[in-house]
Amino acid sequence: MTQRQRITIRWINHDKLPWLKLGMIGEVRAFSLDAVYSRPQLTCHLPGLLGPQAIEAFSNAEDALNRAGEMTREFFERLNVPASAAVDVVPPVPEPEEQAV
Q1: pTM
Q2: Which residue of 3, 17, 71, 92 is surrounded by the most CB atoms within 10 Å?
Q3: Distance from C-alpha of 28 to C-alpha of 23, rounded to nearest angstrom
Q4: Element containing residue 10 per DSSP (H, E)
């Protein structure tokens, strides 16, 4: 990976669980953001130094998305990708409101 390439975390809505957002890097699920609790919980599916990473709780979803960007940078640095590689975080698309029939 060259220094000019960008890494994008694309957040999508889970198809069956409306409170769950999936953070995708390419076709890989890298994160899950669970908003069913009073504080959003971020699960990182990328391995850490010692394997699985702990679930982290945040006061708001924006902080969780920012932390996902940090964790992605840390992961790619461990793979010897230049630290200056930029990580773009694309926020989830809001759910369309249900229309009355």
Answers
A1: 0.76
A2: 71
A3: 8
A4: strand 6-13
